[in-house]
Amino acid sequence: MIRDHVGTVIVALSQHLHLPLSPLEVEVKAMDAADSFAWYVGVQDVIFETDSHVIFIALSGSTMPPATVIDVIESIQHKLHDFRSVKVQHVGRQGNKSAHTLAQNAKGIHGFVTWMEESPPVIESLVLQDAMYLSLS
Fold first, then answer.
1. Rounded to 5 degrees, what angle do the CA atoms 134, 132, 14 make?
2. What does the pLDDT look like over 106-121, one tens digit per residue?
3. Which residues form the RNase H type-1 domain (predicted)?
4. Among 3.20.20.70, 3.30.2350.10, 3.30.420.10, 3.90.700.10, what is the CATH number of 2-136?
């Protein structure tokens, strides 16, 4: 999900992953897709949020990522250089409900679905809650 400075959804993507993956692998693949999607739609200044502390510290260069995700982490780090400005931040599950719900929704689709200039209906109420939570943090 890509939001503007006040939390309004600009564009969102939900993609079904067909392979059996661990939660960490799913999270890092979602981050990789978000990185590519943001570049594709022309966003130049990005803040990537993850509720995975492992991914957060790996992307910030503080530690070596687990072997199962190192290739994807390195790919993400390489692509981050294409943006004008980048920030990666750790967000607790409480501030990431809409992304989590959108990911759960992907289990019921084939391929991917995008929404332009609107919130996906399944997360409309959660988008506002997340924005309020993050503004209080």
1. 75
2. 877 888 888 887 778 7
3. 2-106
4. 3.30.420.10
Q: Which residue has the tokens 């294409």?
A: 82
| pTM of the entire predicted model | 0.79
What pLDDT score was predicted for residue 129?
Answer: 72
Our measurement of the distance from residue 47's CA atom to the centroid of its chain's CA atoms, rounded to an integer in Å, reads 9
Give the pLDDT confidence of 31-82 residue by residue, as tens digits.
998 899 999 999 999 988 888 999 999 998 888 899 999 999 999 999 999 9
Per DSSP, helices labelled H in 1-137 are: 23-40, 53-59, 70-80, 97-105, 124-136
DSSP letter (8 states) at residue 65:
P
In the prediction, which pLDDT does 132 show? 67
Backbone conformation region of residue 16, classed left if phi is above 0, alpha if psi is from -120 to 50, else beta: beta
Neighbouring residues of 137: CB distance < 8 A, sequence distance ≥ 6: 95
Look up residue 95 and give its two tokens.
């501030």
